[in-house]
Input
Amino acid sequence: MRSSTAICLAACWLSLTLAGNAAALPNDSVICWPLEHSDLVGGHATTVLGQPVVRPTPHGPALFFNGTTDGLLVPVNPLAGWSQFTVEVLFQPAEGGLAEQRFVHIQDPAGWRVMIETRLDGKGGWWLDTFLGNGRNIKQPLIDPRRVHPTNRWYWVALTYDGRRMTHFINGEPELAANVSFGPMGPGQISLGVRQNKVYWLKGEIREIRFTPRALPAAELQRLGEN
Output
């Protein structure tokens, strides 16, 4: 596993140094965004929707989103110019939220979108839904309602794209994959806790997001044990 405080701190420094020039990152680097403030994420001033609050967690401070009005807009796209990428998110989905929750939405002006979402069954379970596409002729979701996980627990989820194939993972374990022709993306923005058109709100906490300019193998992904 790649998680270490030293690596994360170095990555956060690098993300600040290369802000606006993510395409310049070497492919063994990572942009790390701990979500410890609502008004500043990864060195970027945010647009705050509602009142997401910082809470202590076993993994460090995290932002809690209430499922109805809380979200963030971050005016940058770390994936811009990347032909390959990995997006990793440490989060805890809470029970009692909407059935569909788009908690990471990355988009550029050409309409290329990266989505990481949950689906809740209303019985204490959730499954992962990811999407790559341009909203027009390219639309590739990955979703399987049979792959249910308990709510109110922490997870690392990941979406990788190697220039041909997208795969999503939970705690380092691959779940689904498909071939798709995607991007590369241009400059854009990210919404956290909600889709960019302010629907499908997250109820839960996000601690950290990581962006890597290559498709990480399962052995290098962040993961948690039983929690």
In short: The two ends are 17 Å apart (CA to CA). The chain is about 5% helix and 45% strand. The chain has one domain: 5-220.
